[in-house]
TrEMBL record:
Name of the molecule in the record: Pseudouridine-5'-phosphate glycosidase
Cofactor binding notes: Binds 1 Mn(2+) ion per subunit.
Domain of life per record: Bacteria
Record GO biological process: nucleobase catabolic process
Membrane-spanning segments: none
SUPFAM superfamilies with a match to the protein in the record: Indigoidine synthase A-like (SSF110581)
Subunit (UniProt): Homotrimer.
Amino acid sequence: MTDFHIRYGAEVADARRDGRPVVALESTIVSHGLPRPDNLRVAREIEQAVRAAGAVPATIGMVGGELVVGLDDDQLTRLASTDGVAKLSVRDLAIASATGADGATTVAATSAVAAAAGIGVFATGGLGGVHREASQTFDESADLTTLARTPITVVCAGVKSILDVGATLERLETLGVAVLGYRTHRFPGFFITDSGFGLDWSVDSPEQAAAVLTAQAAHGAHLGGVIVANPLPIDEQLDPALHDRTLAEGLARMEREGVTGKAVTPFLLSHFHSATEGASLAVNVRIILRNATLAAQIAVALAARPSLAG
Ligand code: PSU
Ligand code: MN
């Protein structure tokens, strides 16, 4: 595994020493996924949701070239509020570190760093995946290939319909990334409770999820990531008609403006937030808070099992 030089925040360092459950959190969601100034408030709320469920939050990011697991409030504020914070996938970490950059970690980079830090559970909103038109553009998030080789459990609400959901599920299968529905056999579509795709496996409790992770570690036959897909209750989802309209507009605008590469995901997220006049933001926040709570419950259940620490 990659050997990162990591600085631990005080709360996380204490938790590691005492063997208490820790949940990793990403920072790209804060810097590039949510609009200011709500992003900083939400980042703090996510951490509070983890604490309320009995675990310690470890928000991961790069500050002045230093990789931090457990950003303190000043560091979180800096990544949330300053311009020029880079979006860091795994391949960018060493470069950002050597150049002394500020950067926010994606699901891929957060997973790699969390695993290197011995953290087994990670909460986010939505995973990156295969983009529409990927057969022409080859645009597939490094989140997928990283999860193929990284022992981490990612609690998320599936992937956004800005992506090709079916292709993303196919790639997860090919890459050997396990997908567990939480109390559902339907893959969630982030803003939408049901993406239209089914899942083979489901767990009904944090304890059951922890049992799967323990079995995975014990068997040693599957070394990749596990996705716990946690859907929004149907009465809390974004209005599907508004969703479909916004998505179609966003994709058309992206094409017109020639947006490509790592700018694609932030562009579409920001289109949703402005075009729905905050409705998608409220749903987005609910999703993240629910995932943070579930991830903390799973980390607590894991820590309570004799064979494996969270
Ligand atoms: N999907 C979301 N919200 C997000 C992201 C994805 O619904 O904020 C962020 C995550 O950090 C994810 C990254 O890892 O975007 C994926 O970017 P890309 O498609 O460039 O790999
Ligand atoms: Mn991409």
